[in-house]
Amino acid sequence: MSWQQINVSIRSEHLATIEKIVMEHGALSITYLDAANQPVFQKKPGSTPLWDNTILSCLFPADKNLQSLLWLLRAQPIIDNDTSLEIQLIEDKDWERSWMANFKAMAFGKTLWICPSWQEPPDPNAVNVMLDPGLAFGSGTHATTALCLRWLEQADLMGKHVIDYGCGSGVLAIAASLLGAATIHGVDNDPQAIIATIDNSQRNQINDAQLTTFLPQELPAMEADILLANILAEPLIDLAAKFSTLVKAGGQIVLSGILENQIDQVLTAYTPQFVMGEPSLEGDWVRLNGTRLY
Asked: According to the per-residue pLDDT averaged within each range, which of 25-29, 90-94, 211-215 is highest?
């Protein structure tokens, strides 16, 4: 079986208009794609942030006559003039196997790997976190997570007490545990992320005594050796005072999810309580590390 596909590039505020047109002309599905490599994040559970410029990838039956739809779309002034509006033929394939074939185990430093569940770890003697890629809450493929994983791989975690604030899939918490941390507290404001962290920690044979999870309002008072927060610059700034109470004197803080042009704002929020080190960059993204003042 095959399908026809039309891609439409458009400003996100006009999505509803074009969606209505293509659905009325028999679209089977519509997929949103980033048209300009713009990072966007869900700031609140349940919200649906969109890129400023979006590509609507519209799928139709192979035998559908789409000429009238093309004529109508080309007449729309809200559609990007650079859009070719051509019909593409999409052949059928085993999409699940095709998707799986695109993902390989990833190394972070010399000893830490993130491995999809359907592949054997390249190095059985390494620290192997078994975690499937493509999870909504993070699996190591994004630069912000990679920056944190590389920090963890070289850190002395033996016997340490760690907080992973914004734990998502649990990838950082699981890595910290397998690298020797004594206890990890995973915190997230999304209950689905808490479920994901628990499921993934069990897959990696981490028990409840090693890794516990909390919604933010449930986290008890404590002083951790290390606090990891891979979230966004805005909440990192808002949480600076709270984080200072959660890290013991001489403890370390690791912050990610920061764009290069946000470094100064985040540093300003943390320098009263932390001695901050030099930023570590990957692409447009930054990791900041600091030590809690005595």
From this structure: 211-215
CATH pick for 2-92 out of 3.30.70.260, 3.40.50.300, 3.40.50.2000, 1.10.1530.10 = 3.30.70.260
- In angstroms, the Cα distances linking 104 to 11, 39, 132, 144, 152 are 34, 23, 10, 19, 21
Return the C-alpha torsion angle 146, 160, 200, 140, nearest 10.
0
Residue 198, phi then psi, degrees to nearest 5? -65, -45
| 136-292 maps to CATH 3.40.50.150 | yes
| pTM of the complete model beyond 0.70 | yes
**Cβ neighbours for 62, distance < 8 A, ≥ 6 positions apart:** 1, 2, 3, 4, 89
Backbone dihedral angles phi then psi of residue 150, each to the nearest 5 degrees: -65, -35
Q: How far apart are CA 242 and CA 88, in angstroms?
A: 52
pLDDT at 140 over 80: no
